[in-house]
User: Which sequence fits this backbone?
């Protein structure tokens, strides 16, 4: 038992470090949008497209790697992704043509697909009653890699950088982060173990047929959690790639380090507070405590629903803070938006492995993959040329979230929630799929 416990926590540590760095390299472009725009002649709208493009490969990539992690085990898949991301990040450091650079960074941006690999890996080792906290720690500290990128990279690779290989700071940053990614790939493959027992490994592996995946992907529970992830994690992705530009352009803040630091306050909240979301879900489920009577008995669902509502309110507040013209107001509300993202994300990924214990990789892939759509779409709202100013886009985004909140209110009702992991858009439970209680 002692060896299993030690390996369990080693798995959590390994997955967390791997994902934290994946997030850092994923958004390593964000602190350097100013100098890159200058070198390649990009407009503000084109910077918005670059921020959006960082997410383009994630939806399909996450669905695929979630399934591959169930089938072949997380250590091998995580190592493969880290290795090729490192190689292409190094390549992007040498790109002289913007089209080539853009394609290479698209490939580097697939670092974000490692999220579902780690979710699956942690779920293979932790018990149901502690899943929310464990997944919250993994994803929360991992997501904070974006803050690390915003805080560390512009300081290590400053404006006056003149290293042995590059005289351009962002090229040096892309090169050296690529080297680290390759080293982490070797470490993950060497130290990682797929599951806590052979029985657990086989139970997961047996649910990897395409028919089983399709059935799982269309359950009500999967669909609503994927939609909720659009407006939480998708929002987080979009803000990570946009806020440094927003603080610089909307408030005439020319200092790259200061603008990136302000942006990092959002990433810190969205990342490091995520365990709070998972722990709150665990706590309500263990104590069977109702905090919203119209979702009676659906303890995790109640916690998730409140988190989604908080995000919508804070996004409207983000517009008001920007229109006030006071930069500090926008930074504070941005931090609260990040807090809402952390709350909802932790709650969502407390539900995923608990509802689908033997399909955690596949469901995490669907939820995580579909969720990234927000990261693609929302930056286009923020930088849309038809907006009167850069503050209005947050309210436009909030309006698009209201149908998702309504969908979650429908699915989290007791009569629907009790069958949400077995009933859905392609019929009822099929042989070979996991069956668990509607609540967790």
Assistant:
């Amino acid at each position: 038992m002692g060896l299993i416990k030690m390996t369990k926590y080693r798995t959590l540590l390994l997955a967390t470090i791997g994902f934290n760095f994946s997030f850092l390299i994923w958004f390593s472009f964000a602190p350097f949008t100013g100098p890159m725009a200058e070198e390649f002649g990009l407009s503000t709208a084109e910077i918005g497209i670059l921020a959006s493009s960082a997410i383009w490969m994630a939806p399909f990539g996450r669905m695929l790697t979630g399934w591959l992690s169930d089938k072949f085990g997380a250590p091998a898949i995580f190592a493969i992704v880290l290795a090729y991301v490192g190689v292409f990040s190094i390549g992007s450091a040498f790109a002289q043509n913007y089209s080539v650079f853009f394609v290479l960074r698209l490939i580097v941006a697939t670092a974000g697909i490692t999220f579902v690999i780690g979710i699956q890996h942690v779920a293979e080792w932790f018990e149901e009653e502690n899943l929310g906290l464990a997944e919250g720690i993994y994803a929360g500290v991992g997501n904070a890699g974006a803050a690390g990128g915003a805080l560390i990279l512009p300081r290590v690779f400053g404006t006056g950088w003149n290293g042995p290989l590059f005289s351009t700071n962002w090229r040096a940053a892309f090169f050296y982060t690529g080297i680290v990614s390759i080293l982490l790939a070797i470490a993950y493959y060497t130290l990682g173990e797929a599951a806590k027992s052979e029985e657990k490994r086989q139970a997961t592996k047996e649910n990897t047929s395409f028919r089983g995946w399709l059935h799982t992907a269309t359950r009500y529970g999967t669909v609503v959690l994927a939609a909720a992830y659009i407006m939480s994690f998708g929002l987080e992705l979009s803000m990570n790639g946009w806020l440094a530009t927003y603080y610089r352009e909307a408030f005439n803040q020319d200092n790259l380090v200061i603008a990136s630091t302000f942006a990092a306050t959002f990433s810190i909240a969205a990342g490091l507070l995520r365990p709070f979301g998972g722990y709150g879900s665990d706590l309500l489920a263990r104590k069977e405590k109702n905090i919203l009577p119209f979702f009676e008995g659906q303890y995790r669902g109640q916690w998730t629903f409140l988190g989604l509502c908080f995000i919508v309110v804070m996004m409207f507040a983000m517009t008001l803070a920007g229109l006030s013209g006071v930069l500090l107001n926008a930074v504070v509300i941005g931090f609260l938006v990040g807090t809402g993202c952390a709350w909802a994300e932790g709650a969502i990924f407390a539900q995923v492995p608990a509802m689908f214990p033997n399909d955690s990789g596949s469901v995490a892939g669907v939820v995580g993959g579909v969720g990234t759509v927000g990261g693609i779409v929302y930056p286009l709202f923020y930088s849309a040329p038809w907006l009167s100013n850069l503050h209005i886009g947050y309210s436009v985004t909030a309006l698009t979230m209201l149908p998702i909140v309504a969908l979650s209110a429908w699915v989290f009702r007791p009569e629907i929630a009790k069958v949400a992991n077995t009933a859905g858009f392609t019929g009822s439970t099929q042989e070979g799929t996991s069956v668990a209680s509607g609540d967790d």
Q: What stands out?
A: The chain has two domains: 1-207, 208-424. Residues 429-440 have pLDDT under 50 and may be disordered. The two ends are 25 Å apart (CA to CA). The chain is about 75% helix and 0% strand.
